[in-house]
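## retry 2 of 3
previous attempt timed out at serialization; input unchanged, resubmitting
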Amino acid sequence: MTQPGSRAGRPLAAYIVVTAAYWAFMLTDGALRMLVLLHFNQLGFSPITLAWLFLLYEIAGMVTNLAAGWIAARFGLTTTLYVGLGLQVVALVALSWLDPGWAVAVSVPFVMVVQGLSGVAKDLSKMSSKSAVKLLAPEADDGLFKWVAVLTGSKNAVKGFGFFLGAGLLAVLGFKLSVLVMAAVLAVILIGVMVSMPVGLPKGSKSAKFAHVFSKDPKINRLSLARMFLFGARDTWFVVGIPIFFHDRVEKLLGTDNAFFIVGGFMALWIIAYGAIQAAAPKLLGPTAHEGREATRLAIRWVGILTAIPAVLAVAAVWSDAVWLLPVAVIVLLAFGFVFAINSSLHSYLILAFTKSERVTMDVGFYYMSNAAGRLIGTLLSGVSYQLGGLVLCLATAAVMAGLSWVAARRIEAVL
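## retry succeeded, writing output
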């Protein structure tokens, strides 16, 4: 892949435009996830069926990330960014065709296909944005860590607001009008990004080979494995288990409409706080956290802490009185969010620190394929474990996934 002067050509302006485009996408992505989850839960779908709605989204993410690195190396980062935003507009418009009167055998496959398209869109946008940071970040020792932390943290804060937006739109506008409004806004933003994007990002090279997407660097492979289990641990409780648990508990107390706002609000605040911690990670971890060995040691330490949190909540779910279970879950999951944010920020930095500029799109694509694989596993386990064993099994499974991430992270030290 040819690389123009990545730190020339107004890098800060390009970083701002890329970040703004990623924000716009993640706002609609968060809103769409909450819209689909709460809308179909309201229609009486089981936890396993709800998980199925997101499976093709995650499968598409795996395939897309594997190919996206090569596509960006071949056709350029701006191309993959624009295509990602455009596909999300198409997915939102397609969801507006959903008819509540359709049979489950029709509506579920339809939503799965559209969610799959949205998954392609998301991972094209993510790979483009994260790769751009490697090429645009300043030369200062901790410059890369700071820039990737700001991009990742702010993106998750915006996605968190999208959760609240999706719940609010569903309650106020209904499903169809909500997705059409989001499609229109995102289309306008896409046009604005295309007009304002500065020069400076790689244009692609015909010499890029698809076979190059598979990394031969053991550091990247082991980090990718740790990432897969890390996000599997999060999504095992995050996708179906906790939202439906919260919604059912709150609905019994306050009614359906209030439940939408409260559950959406909690998930939004969780993601927003998680994003803020990610952005602040370089300061929280200290001045030496950007060094490869130290960052790796910190990643191992923090995922060890993470493993204990869902395990503690699973035990609390067994022994707590039903009245106290909801507030206990809120408190412990806030702790999970804090620790997970530190882990995620360290991983996002390490993949860019380990890769070389000429391979950045390939390695980032491979790494986020593993990320998508973790989300896929976590999504499936979320529905299955919650339906079979409720909150206790859901959280116990999350603890096992986090423990496997710790094992994989420890193996990185051996190849540094």
